[in-house]
Amino acid sequence: MRIAVFSARPYDRHSLDQANKAAAAGQRVQFLYNEATLDSRTAALADGCDGVCVFVNDRLDAPVLQTLHELGVSAIVLRCAGFNNVDLATAQRLGFFVARVPAYSPEAVAEHTLALVMTLNRHTHRAYNRVREGNFMLNGLLGRTLHGKTVGIVGTGKIGLATARIFKGMGCRLLGHDPYPSPAFQAIGEDVELDELLARSDIVSLHCPLTAQTEHLINDVSLSRMKPGAMLVNTSRGGLVDTGAVIRALKSRHLGHVAIDVYEQESELFFQDRSGEIIDDDVFQRLMTFPNVLVTGHQGFFTAEALEEIAQTTLANLGHFTAGTPCPNCVT
Ligand code: NAI
């Protein structure tokens, strides 16, 4: 079986090759690696392949799916949990097998969420630079003690729960909001409506998937309901947040801090070295001017353990596709 891997970086090659080597002979596949992101211009690279292996910013909209279908591709394996980048209705109509990696390491994303909160709160990123330049002044580095603060978790699924458990260990009070409340979360926190969560939380952390219902869940209105000076954290999907509204809330000083690992227009920027170029995205550039904003480039998942799990599950998903057996990770 030949699989065209898109958005392939050296670490993807390494983990997929390792998993392939460790697999039983009958389960091995031939991976053809492409650095390019999958879109209508690059879909032809899958010519002669049975499947494509894709990541968060590969675009599997109706025209791309149609091209893949015409090329004879019939399997789509996602190296991620979210599948908002796949037009599922079209994929279903064209008979694609679509499978994802539902949980590779919820703790990896939860720990990165905490890393963002702790860095932004105690300004360790600024302190690091200052100390290296021999500046030991503390002005501007004042943080808040997190013990006793209220953290609102929007989406108390696997990552939300893992995040909540870490905050609980730090002595924080927990509020959660989820249309499907989780008993495991209820054992450590209180389930409330979204408006109440926004009004009572010192930190609001987003962990729900991006769907038609959750797109721009954080907008001018929801931001105005947040506590003045609160911190907004998004390690889920960029589209949950209206970035223009966040900039307005930062400029008005209503929003205290923003930490994001995902950004609505990230497909133009993230996972690429753009350091020598002029970045045209004025919204992103404005966001980067605030001293109380911290951005990382979608690295929440990026641990050795998670990469290993992603590669192994991807091979297992392909095994189900080949054998025609029911795949627990199918989304079509
Ligand atoms: P999950 O499916 O275990 O949990 C998501 C939860 O969100 C579910 O309990 C669901 O009921 C809830 N939810 C759905 N609609 C909601 C709404 N309107 N309001 C509040 N809650 C709602 O998924 P998991 O594994 O916890 O992942 C969450 C998200 O994290 C993924 O959808 C993905 O977008 C993102 N993610 C980000 C990564 C990164 O590297 N930054 C890596 C992996 C996932």
Automatic annotation (TrEMBL):
CDD domains, per database record:
LDH_like_2
- What superkingdom does the record give? Bacteria
Might you give the EC number(s) for this enzyme? 1.1.1.28
- Top enzyme category: oxidoreductase
What keywords are assigned to this protein? NAD, Oxidoreductase
- Which parts of the sequence belong to the D-isomer specific 2-hydroxyacid dehydrogenase catalytic domain? 3-331
Quote the InterPro entries the UniProt record gives. D-isomer_2_OHA_DH_cat_dom, D-isomer_DH_CS, D-isomer_DH_CS1, D-isomer_DH_NAD-bd, D-LDH-like, NAD(P)-bd_dom_sf
- GO terms for MF: D-lactate dehydrogenase (NAD+) activity; NAD binding
Question: What are the D-isomer specific 2-hydroxyacid dehydrogenase NAD-binding domain coordinates in residue numbering?
Answer: 114-300
Similarity comment: Belongs to the D-isomer specific 2-hydroxyacid dehydrogenase family.
Q: What is this protein called?
A: D-lactate dehydrogenase
